[in-house]
Amino acid sequence: MKKILNASVSRRGVLAGSLAGAGVLAMPSILKAQDKSLKVGVYGGYFKDSFDKNIFPEFTKATGIAVESVAEPTGEAWLVQLEQAAKAGQAPADVSMMSQVAMLKGQSTELWTPLDMAKIKNASGLIDAFVNKYPDGRVAGIGAVAWYITLVTNTDVFKEAPTSWTALWDPANADKLGLLALVSNSFLLEVTAKTHFGGTNALDTEEGILKAFEKLAEVKPNVRLWYRDEAQFEQALKSGEIPMGQYYHDVTGLAAADGHPVRSTFPKEGGILDSGCWALSRASQKSEEAHVFIDYMCQPSIQATLSRKVGTAPTVKRDLLDLTAEEFAAVSSDIDPIVPRYDLYQTKSDWLNQKWTELIAG
């Protein structure tokens, strides 16, 4: 789901059935049925394939609304496309799965149509953190899926699982770490704040952020690879060449299930919980269908299906799910997570990138 691959857009036509023998009087109702459709933007590759196979057909069966899935490009390119299209009154997708930083940036231009929560009854089961709001309280987006970045190790090299993010700073781990290469996707400032400064509110001031940067800089002797290519680190983790680092919990679990000597650990300070939101473009003419779709996706049963079939963490409360303990552990954790400070990546992006280059990546 994090690996954005080039994927062609799959188009799903509306099955109107055979018109053989249908009289002229039947045509208006057929046209009306064809109007019940929705373009949904999701991350490309494996993620989109899983939705096309396991989620969208069942939604159409349940609601009669046909889905045309659209493969979103990586990064914030999709946000730019949606924004430019909206200015022209067009919507490349009616509903899109957006990152939290993209949600905030879209809010600043009123890109997202506020959602009517009275039409999304199933949202009552959501974990509060997964309701994305405008500053005035209007709901801009609803949590679609979540995923964790955790502390991962090669079991041949590390016989015992680490219990804390402090392992990143341990001198015994010199030249053994693989860490994500960008300030805005590694969330290592938040890890540092939670591990050494009592919580992410330590990042409320520039002074606090600089202290976190200075502390994070102490891990540099331990870092073998700052990676952008996930496959490169995953391969090095499996082989033991780079036996520790941060990586995606679900992907690591799949690798372990395939027999590779890797493990994912939720440190006592929590795993990093990242997520995507469903958001409705202001240019969309499909508000009614979009609300039906978002309400459907908030159902505990659908969130459980996503966990089983797509490998995402649920956005609804644990006690509403029928996931077994093993199924839940495969995608999530009951330990309080480290939630990224998305606000900082919107308001201080340039400054953070500059300091990251100076103090960490330099």
Descriptive overview:
- The chain has 362 residues and is an alpha/beta fold.
- It has helices spanning 27-35, 46-54, 56-63, 77-87, 100-107, 183-186, 188-196, 206-217, 230-239, 249-257, 287-297, 300-309, 325-331, 342-347, 349-361; strands at residues 37-43, 66-72, 95-99, 131-133, 139-154, 177-180, 223-227, 244-248, 262-265, 272-280.
- Strands 1, 2, 3, 4, 5, 6, 7, 8, 9 and 10 form a ten-stranded mixed beta sheet that branches.
- A hairpin with a 5-residue loop joins strand 4 (131-133) and strand 5 (139-154).
- The longest helix has 13 residues, at 349-361.
- Mean pLDDT is 89; it is low at 1-33.
Concise structural overview:
With 362 residues, this protein is α/β, with parallel strands linked by helices. 38% of the residues lie in helices and 18% in strands. The chain has helices at residues 27-35, 46-54, 56-63, 77-87, 100-107, 183-186, 188-196, 206-217, 230-239, 249-257, 287-297, 300-309, 325-331, 342-347, 349-361, and strands spanning 37-43, 66-72, 95-99, 131-133, 139-154, 177-180, 223-227, 244-248, 262-265, 272-280.
